[in-house]
Design a protein that fits this description.
Largest sheet: 9 strands, mixed
Strand order of the largest sheet: 2-1-3-4-9-5-6-7-8
Helix content: 25-40%
Number of domains: 2
Oligomer: single chain
Shape: globular
Number of strands: 9
Strand content: 25-35%
Structural class: alpha+beta
Order of helices and strands: HHHHHHEEEEEEEEE
């Protein structure tokens, strides 16, 4: 296999991976957990820079609920469109929030810094949030990235959520609750970020939504 064929194979895999992960609402962090690989490696898979080994490929397929062939075969070439047709890629516009502040409506004008488009749908409500800081960079969610968030007021333990703590601005952390105790866990390479532990009887905690996708956006 020559260099061009290797690049094409990587791109086909990456294109299928991005499409299926988006359809299944599987995040890069989910793939990191399933394959026990670094977030950098998984990011390279999504961007067509690297190609996983067969055992990793099978774990990815299992996580996505598909066959390996769905990841490695050129799905687009199987059903070519007419020469003058464009592929249908349904998207809808969602607001980009620079921050979420207590005491203001979620989509207050002061919060919205722009708009982006997402393929996520399924009848749910979504918004994008600009990431500030490095408290989740170990998951590949870095400063300046956009995360797509599905509006919901409950999440499962261990899921990455946007959470309002008291009267502060919202924060993004892994969410854990045990009775009246809520732990917001950073996933950072910076040791300065420590778990935040709250007693619901003393501090109100409100889940804004679940992070379902993270991506770098060139400004």
């Amino acid at each position: 296999m020559n260099f061009m064929e290797i690049n094409e194979t990587r791109e086909i895999f990456a294109r299928n991976l991005r499409r299926i992960a988006s359809e299944k609402q599987i995040t890069q962090s989910d793939i990191v957990s399933a394959t026990n690989c670094s977030s950098a490696t998984v990011s390279d898979w999504f961007n067509g820079k690297k190609y996983p080994r067969p055992n990793r490929m099978q774990r990815i397929a299992d996580t996505l609920g598909v066959c390996m062939s769905d990841l490695i075969e050129d799905q687009f070439s199987k059903s070519p469109l007419p020469k003058d047709a464009l592929p249908f890629n349904p998207t809808h516009r969602i607001p980009i929030l620079g921050r979420i502040s207590a005491g203001l409506p979620l989509y207050a004008e002061e919060h919205i810094e722009g708009w982006t488009y997402t393929e996520l749908n399924g009848g749910a409500e979504y918004f994008a949030l600009r990431v500030h800081g490095d408290s989740m960079d170990a998951l590949g969610i870095k400063d300046g990235y956009l995360v797509d968030v599905r509006r919901q007021d409950m999440v499962e333990n261990g899921e990455v959520a946007i959470v309002m703590v008291g009267d502060d601005e919202a924060t993004m952390k892994r969410f854990y609750q045990d009775g009246d105790t809520v732990t917001l866990m950073p996933q950072s390479t910076n040791p300065a970020h420590m778990p935040q532990i709250y007693n619901l009887k003393e501090t109100p905690i409100r889940v804004i939504g679940k992070v379902v996708k993270a991506e770098f956006q060139v400004l």
